[in-house]
Structures are given as C-alpha cells and as structure tokens.
C-alpha cells in the first residue's frame, strides 16, 4: 500500500515538474521577446510583440471576425486527419503483417514520404481545384505518412518470441495479431497520431496561405500583405 502511494507521488511530482518547467520556459521566451522589442533591437513592423498579438487577438475574437476562419480550418483539418487515420492505420498493419504487401507499398511510401508536402500543393490544386477538397487532400497527405510509417514500424518491432509462444500453444494468426501485435503496436500508433496532428496543422495552414479565401492560413496571408504582423 505504502509502495503504491509512493509511486503515485513520484509520478505526480514528475508531471508537476514537467509542467512547471514548461510554463517557465514559455513565459521566459515571451519576456525576452517583449523586452527585445521594447528596447528596439528589431523592427516591430517585421515581427510583432506578444502584447500587440494579445490585443489584436482579443479584438478579433471579440468582434467575431476570427471565428469563421477557425471553423473553416478546423473542418478541413478534421476531415483530412480522420481519413488519414482511417486509411493509414489499417494499411500500416497490413504492411507490417504481410511480407508481400510490404514489398508492394514500401518503396512507393518511402518515396512519397521523402517528398515535401508543400511542394505537392500546386499539383493538388491543379487536380482538385482551390476549394474544400484540395485542403482536405493536403491535410490527408500531411498526416497519412506519419501514421502509416509508425504503425508499420510498430508491427515490425513486435518481439518474435512472443509470437512464437502464442503459436506454440496452438494460437491462430488472428489470435496472435489481436493479443500480441496490436497491444505492442498501440504506442507507435499514438506516436504517429501525435506527429500527424502537427503535420496536418502545418498542411492546412500552408494550403490556405497558397490558395484560399477563408481559413487561418488565408487570414495570416491577408494581414501579412499589409505587414500587420500582430
């Protein structure tokens, strides 16, 4: 009982320590940023200050001008990311589980994964247009490769001895997959999801900056044209 309480206390202290230093680091960057701006060490017309960004954000959220852009970006982001998860996870499991499926897709996925997604945006616009569908495709491609590669890696790194033990007791391939492969792959899937979220967000903003009339990327591009960096 005492050991369990002690372990829980240690885990909580680590979480609090991580949160504490994370907040300190974030606040420290903001303070240094604001101080250098007020001292005139750089031109505010090229890079705004935290205080100016805060005031502009309060104004935009207060008058409601920001909400339509947020809604548009979230809709494109959610659609593309859900499709990437729905396709990427099963495909990664198949590639990792079957050798011939690996041979079929591995080279293609490696080549496409090495291609910057931003470089594909003009081609996607030519094929899918400049509407909602093009942004969803960009988000899908941005997240898909992270999800499928990490899932495939998780299946590939499953300990062979665990599979051998399952088979030695007469377990079917499906039983080994369900009780051994999936649990060992789950952390990799979570890691791919986390990486894919960040890349998908970059993808939707990049696509909207290049070609859109609404969304956060369009909002950034519009005010950047007038050097309104706040």
Description:
With 230 residues, the chain is mostly helical. It has 2 domains: 2-63; 67-225, MetI-like fold. The protein has helices at 2-38, 50-63, 67-97, 99-114, 117-128, 132-156, 160-168, 173-210, 216-225. The longest helix has 38 residues, at 173-210. It starts with a helix and ends in a 5-residue tail after the last helix. The mean pLDDT is 79.
Question: What tags apply to this protein structure?
Answer:
9 helices; 0% strand; 2 domains; MetI-like fold; 230 residues
Individual helix count:
9
Please mark out the parts with pLDDT under 50 across 5 or more consecutive residues, or reply none.
none
Helix content: over 70%
Query: Which H/E pattern describes the elements?
Result: HHHHHHHHH
Portion in beta strands: under 5%
Quickly give the CATH architecture of the largest domain.
Orthogonal Bundle
Overall tally of domains = 2
Overall pLDDT: 79
| Highest CATH level, the class of the largest domain | Mainly Alpha
Helix/strand/pairing category: mainly alpha
What is the makeup of the main sheet?
none
Separation, N- and C-terminal Cα atoms: 54 Å
Computed over alpha carbons, the radius of gyration is 23 Å
* CATH homologous superfamily heading of the largest domain: MetI-like
CATH topology of the largest domain: MetI-like fold
Total strands: 0
Rough outline: globular
């Amino acid at each position: 009982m005492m050991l369990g309480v002690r372990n829980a206390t240690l885990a909580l202290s680590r979480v609090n320590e991580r949160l504490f230093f994370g907040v300190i680091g974030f606040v420290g960057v903001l303070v240094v940023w604001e101080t250098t701006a007020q001292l005139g060490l750089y031109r505010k017309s090229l890079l705004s200050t935290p205080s100016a960004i805060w005031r502009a954000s309060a104004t935009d959220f207060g008058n409601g001008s920001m909400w339509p852009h947020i809604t548009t970006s979230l809709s494109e982001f959610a659609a593309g990311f859900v499709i990437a998860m729905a396709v990427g996870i099963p495909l990664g499991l198949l590639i990792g589980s079957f050798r011939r499926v690996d041979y079929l897709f591995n080279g293609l996925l490696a080549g496409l994964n090495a291609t910057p997604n931003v470089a594909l945006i003009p081609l996607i616009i030519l094929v899918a247009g400049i509407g909602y569908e093009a942004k969803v495709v960009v988000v899908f491609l941005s997240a898909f490769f992270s999800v499928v590669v990490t899932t495939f890696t998780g299946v590939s790194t499953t300990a062979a001895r665990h599979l051998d033990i399952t088979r030695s007791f007469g377990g079917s391939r499906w039983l080994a997959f369900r009780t051994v492969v999936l649990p060992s792959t789950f952390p990799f899937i979570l890691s791919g999801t986390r990486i894919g979220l960040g890349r998908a967000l970059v993808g939707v903003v990049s696509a909207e900056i290049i070609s859109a009339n609404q969304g956060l990327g369009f909002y950034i591009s519009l005010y950047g044209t007038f050097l309104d960096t706040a």
